């Protein structure tokens, strides 16, 4: 997996976060579709963290091979 693909996945996750924030009812965020939107936000944040960890591990691997 190259760096460009990882960045595209991060951008898609950010877009999903932006979309899910629009679905959250801030008056009652635990009821109905707001719960699903909050789960989607957390899942997208997890995907971003995993991609950042992956990119960092690739940088470390590249430095160790030198």
TrEMBL record:
Keywords for this protein: Membrane, Transmembrane, Transmembrane helix
Residue ranges crossing the lipid bilayer per the database entry: 36-56
Protein name: Uncharacterized protein
Organism, as annotated: Flagellimonas okinawensis
